[in-house]
Amino acid sequence: MPFSGVEGLTARQPGTIGGQHLALREQVLAELRRRIIDGDYPPGQRLTEDRLAADFGVSRNPVREALRIVQADGLVTSLPRRGAMVATPDASTVEDLFAVRESLEPVAARLAAARATPQDVAQLRRLLDEGREATEQDDFSRLSQLNSELHLTIISVTGNRWLASVAGSLYLHVHWVFRIGAAQRAPHSWQEHIRLVDAIAAGDSAEAELAARDHVGAAAHAAHASILDGATASRGGEPDGSGAPSAPDGIPLHAPGVGSGAQDA
Question: What is the CATH number of domain 91-230?
Answer without folding.
Answer: 1.20.120.530
